[in-house]
Design a protein that fits this description.
Distance between the termini: 46 Å
Number of helices: 12
Radius of gyration: 19 Å
Strand content: 15-25%
C-alpha cells in the first residue's frame, strides 16, 4: 500500500490528500492546532462537486512521533520565512522517499533540492479555489486541476504513479517536463490578484476586474511577470494574460488566500509570490515598477 505523509493540512493539503485517501492511499497528516478535532472527527470537504469526508489513517501532533518510512511526503504549507521545511524534513525523510511540493510562488524548490539532492522532488501547481471554512472543514469552490513535474531531473516512475492515483480519484492531472514554466504561469494570476485584493482594501476578484483602474493594474503586473518569465528562459504564451482575465471573470467572486490571511491576522506569502520575483528581476537588471511597488507596500503590512 502506498503511504503518504502530509505536512500542511490546510485547505489545499487536505483536499488533495483526501482525494488520494479515496483511492486507497494510507494517509498520515501532521496536524497541530486542530489535532484533537481532526483526530476524532476527520476533515469534511464541502465541494461544489459534492461533499465528502476524509478520515486519515493517522494524525500526528509532533513529527518526532514518526518512526516509519513513507513513499511520498506531500508539503502543502504556506511559503513563509517562519516555516523551515528543510528542518521539518531532516529527521523524517528516508532515502527512497519522494517529496511533493504543492505551494505557491516562484523559485521555491531550490533550497529543498540542494539540501536533499538524493531524494526525488516533485513540484506541483494546484489550480484550485479552496479555503479553510472552520476547524475540520474545507470549502472547495472551483477547479482542482494539478500540474506536476520532476524538479531535479530524476527519471523514475514515481511521477507517473502519483499522477495515476490522482486521476483515479477524479482529479485532472497534467504532467509537465517544463515545471518552471508552469510556475511562472501560475504566478501570472497569483502575482496580480493576491496582493491587489489586500492593497485595494478587501476586494474580491469580481470587484477588482469590475474597476477599470484596477483592471489596468492587473494587466500591468501580469506584463511584468511575463517579462521576468522570458528572462528565466520560460517564455509564456502570447494570450496568457487574456486567458487569465477571462477565466477569472467566469469565476464566482473569490477572496484570495492572501486576503483571507490578512483578514485573519496571519502571515502572508509576500516573499514567495512577490519577493522572489522582484529579487530575480534585480539580478537581471529588469525594471518592475508595479511589482516592486506592491512588494514594498505589502512588506510593511
Amino acid at each position: 500500500m502506498t503511504k503518504i505523509l502530509i505536512i500542511g493540512a490546510g485547505a489545499v493539503g487536505s483536499f488533495y490528500g483526501a482525494k488520494l485517501a479515496s483511492v486507497g492511499v494510507e494517509m498520515t497528516i501532521w496536524c497541530r492546532s486542530d489535532y484533537d478535532f481532526v483526530k476524532k472527527n476527520g476533515i469534511k470537504i464541502e465541494s461544489y462537486l459534492g461533499d465528502f469526508h476524509f478520515s486519515p489513517h493517522k494524525v500526528v501532533k509532533n513529527l518526532d512521533e514518526i518512526d516509519e518510512e513513507f513513499d511520498y511526503i506531500l508539503i502543502a504549507t504556506k511559503v513563509l520565512p517562519s516555516i523551515d521545511i528543510c528542518g521539518l524534513l531532516t529527521n523524517i525523510l528516508q532515502p527512497k522517499t519522494k517529496i511533493i511540493l504543492i505551494q505557491n510562488g516562484i523559485h521555491i524548490e531550490n533550497k529543498i533540492a540542494q539540501t536533499f539532492p538524493k531524494n526525488e522532488l516533485i513540484s506541483a501547481i494546484a489550480f484550485i479555489a479552496s479555503s479553510r471554512k472552520s476547524v475540520g472543514v474545507v470549502n472547495h469552490q472551483a477547479y482542482g486541476k494539478i500540474t506536476i513535474g520532476t524538479y531535479n531531473g530524476r527519471d523514475s516512475n514515481a511521477l507517473e504513479f502519483l499522477a495515476n492515483l490522482w486521476k483515479k480519484s477524479g482529479i485532472e492531472v497534467e504532467i509537465s517536463d517544463k515545471i518552471l514554466v508552469e510556475r511562472w504561469k501560475k504566478l501570472i494570476w497569483n502575482g496580480a490578484f493576491n496582493p491587489l485584493s489586500v492593497i485595494l482594501r478587501g476586494k474580491n476578484t469580481k470587484e477588482i476586474l469590475d474597476n477599470d483602474l484596477a483592471m489596468n493594474l492587473v494587466k500591468n503586473i501580469m506584463k511584468e511577470i511575463c517579462e521576468l518569465a522570458k528572462a528565466d528562459n520560460c517564455e509564456l504564451p502570447a494570450d496568457v494574460i487574456e486567458k487569465n482575465i477571462i477565466a477569472t471573470q467566469k469565476m464566482n467572486p473569490y477572496k484570495t488566500s492572501m486576503l483571507l490571511d490578512f483578514e485573519a491576522g496571519r502571515q502572508m506569502e509576500v516573499e514567495a509570490i512577490l519577493g522572489n520575483a522582484v529579487k530575480f528581476a534585480q539580478t537581471k537588471s529588469i525594471s518592475t515598477p508595479y511589482l516592486s511597488t506592491i512588494y514594498a507596500i505589502l512588506s510593511n503590512y
